[in-house]
Write a structure and sequence with these properties.
Number of helices: 3
InterPro entries: Anti-sigma-factor_SerPK, HATPase_C_sf, HATPase_dom
Keywords: ATP-binding, Kinase, Nucleotide-binding, Serine/threonine-protein kinase, Transferase
Order of helices and strands: EHHEEHEE
CATH superfamily: Histidine kinase-like ATPase, C-terminal domain
CATH topology: Heat Shock Protein 90
Number of strands: 5
Structural class: alpha+beta
GO molecular function: ATP binding; protein serine/threonine kinase activity
CATH architecture: 2-Layer Sandwich
Protein name: ATP-binding protein
Length: 132
């Protein structure tokens, strides 16, 4: 498998589903497609709503690299960044159906490693085995 490394720039969420589908096509993966789509959707949505405060003039940078069945994703917004962000390891049953608050949890559950540094979320995923 040939390595893939690219960057995509978005403004707003107008075409983000189409762009996510293009990223999936570009990666040419047969496994983990649902996981990667959901990770990208949640990370991009969080960048727009929370990082860029829904400002469509601010860009979202999506960088991805696939090499040797290891996928690295970075989603960077134009916000001020976050000093310390906790990725929840569970969701309380009382808040399971809340309007928001599950995105970071889902990203954490579907990734091998996730970290937020300033205004960029770094996500690592092993795509060699579809079942974790």
């Amino acid at each position: 498998m040939e390595p893939v490394q690219k960057e995509v720039i978005l403004c707003c969420l107008e075409h983000h589903c189409y762009i996510i589908d293009e990223i999936i096509q570009d990666l040419r993966l047969d496994v983990c497609v649902f996981d990667i789509k959901l990770i990208l959707h949640e990370a991009i949505t969080n960048a727009h709503y929370h990082g860029n405060n829904r400002d469509c003039k601010k860009q979202i940078y999506v960088r991805y690299m696939l090499k040797d069945k290891h996928l690295k994703i970075q989603v960077e917004d134009c916000g001020d960044g976050i000093r310390k962000l906790a990725f929840p390891d569970k969701i309380d049953n009382l808040h399971l159906l809340d309007e928001g608050g599950r995105g970071l949890y889902l990203i954490r559950c579907l990734s091998d490693n996730v970290e937020m540094i300033n205004n960029t979320i770094y996500i690592d995923k092993d795509v060699s085995n579809p079942i974790l």
